[in-house]
């Protein structure tokens, strides 16, 4: 019979009872929220989390302190590195407001259609292009294909986010001038380094079982396709790396939502 926000732990309680009381207390606190207006300013993410979030109900983006460090961001990094990393993450979360789910909420966080019929039809056509594109990717070392429908929201956010971050970096250079090239990698232009920085934070390795579990249950595409899928849709990437026409990362037909 614990009341909200009152958690009593006795020195005689076993670990089991401490956990039980804690769960009951947390659930009681959550149920109490149903009796009050929705708090759009409540912050329920640990600052140590290395992640970023968009809430359609709050129409808000959140970047915990945990992600504001290398390899995503550093005050000592060249701007091209920061824009390609944390810039792409910021753009990703903003674009979630205009993906297949976030687009259904209005500016006040209410589930409400604010689109014209022609805009909805145009968006649906572009959305289906993304679904088909990613649905044709096969996970390495498995026979499983990416679920294009399940991952469409994250894929739309990835594609829009990198494009927005690259445009933002170009705006920065236009206003402040070209920055020095990255020491040790001077053979690459800063625009090329932008894309290297984006690809860099997706580097990783997982066992086949984990890869299969991800492709079956996760709304995020496997990391390799979060890079290849996005960059193959960007004309700017093909331009700065001089990719041949109709090559794997420069197909003639590109999926563009935003």
Automatic annotation (TrEMBL):
GO terms for cellular component: plasma membrane. It holds the Pfam family Peptidase_M13. Gene3D superfamilies: Collagenase (Catalytic Domain). GO terms for biological process: protein processing. GO terms for molecular function: metalloendopeptidase activity. Residues 51-255 form the Peptidase M13 C-terminal domain. This is Peptidase M13 C-terminal domain-containing protein. It comes from Caenorhabditis nigoni. The lineage of its organism: Eukaryota, Metazoa, Ecdysozoa, Nematoda, Chromadorea.
């Amino acid at each position: 019979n614990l009341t909200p926000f009152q958690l009593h732990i006795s020195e005689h309680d076993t670990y089991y009872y401490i956990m039980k009381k804690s769960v009951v207390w947390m659930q009681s606190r959550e149920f109490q929220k149903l009796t009050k207006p929705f708090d759009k300013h409540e912050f329920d993410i640990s600052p140590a989390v290395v992640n970023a979030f968009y809430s359609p109900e709050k129409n808000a983006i959140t970047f915990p302190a945990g992600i504001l460090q290398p390899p995503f961001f550093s005050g000592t990094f060249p701007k091209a590195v920061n824009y390609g990393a944390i810039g792409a993450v910021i753009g990703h979360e903003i674009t979630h407001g205009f993906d297949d789910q976030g687009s259904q909420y209005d500016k006040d966080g209410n589930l409400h259609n604010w689109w014209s019929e022609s805009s909805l039809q145009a968006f649906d056509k572009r959305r289906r292009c993304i679904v088909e594109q990613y649905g044709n990717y096969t996970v390495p070392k498995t026979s499983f294909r990416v679920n294009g429908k399940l991952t469409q929201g994250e894929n739309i956010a990835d594609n829009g986010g990198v494009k927005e971050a690259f445009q933002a970096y170009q705006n920065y250079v236009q206003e402040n001038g070209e920055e020095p090239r990255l020491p040790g990698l001077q053979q690459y232009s800063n625009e090329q380094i932008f894309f290297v920085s984006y690809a860099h934070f997706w580097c990783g390795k997982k066992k086949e079982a984990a890869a299969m579990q991800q492709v079956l249950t996760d709304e995020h595409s496997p990391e390799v396709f979060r890079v290849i899928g996005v960059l193959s849709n960007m004309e700017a990437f093909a331009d700065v790396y001089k990719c041949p026409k109709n090559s794997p990362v420069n197909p003639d037909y590109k999926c563009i939502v935003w």
